[in-house]
Amino acid sequence: MAQVPIACLGDTGSHGGKIITGAETIMVHGRPIARVGDIYDCPEHGPNPIITGAKSVFGRGRQVAHIGSRTACGATITSGCPNATLDVTLLSDEIISPQSANFESECNYDEQILAINKTTGQPIAYYPYFIELVNGKTYFGRTDEYGYTQRIDSLQSAENFIVFWGGRCC
């Protein structure tokens, strides 16, 4: 077992990118923790999920990421919070396929949408959106600095909501 720092939103990886999503309700020194399934924005390969984490430490049903966790593009998480550590066996972490991972949460789906400029391929920061679920529930706001909407917890799959971009919703 080794003591390794927990990875959080904004921590870096070996390909020069940063973790851009995390558990918004679980903070370490004011930053959301990163977990398996959260996104590492790789400058070489684009956004990719984190695929390894601590086997016995979970945040909202997902394994907590740490220094040494890997991403789907092959990057390794290289920074974390030195004041918040986990006991992990670094060599025995199993890679979790994004297709087979069991991401449990309070709801069946925990979606977050990334706005991408079709011309440049770059995320669109601070862009207005309005989201309507089939059950009538709505979300609205502006994308964050990385181009993501707020998280949408629902019992419906991604195919069952509509996103309206632009306008003066907020």
TrEMBL record:
<dbReference type="Pfam" id="PF05488">
    <property type="entry name" value="PAAR_motif"/>
</dbReference>
<dbReference type="InterPro" id="IPR008727">
    <property type="entry name" value="PAAR_motif"/>
</dbReference>
<protein>
    <submittedName>
        <fullName>Zn-binding Pro-Ala-Ala-Arg (PAAR) domain-containing protein, incolved in TypeVI secretion</fullName>
    </submittedName>
</protein>
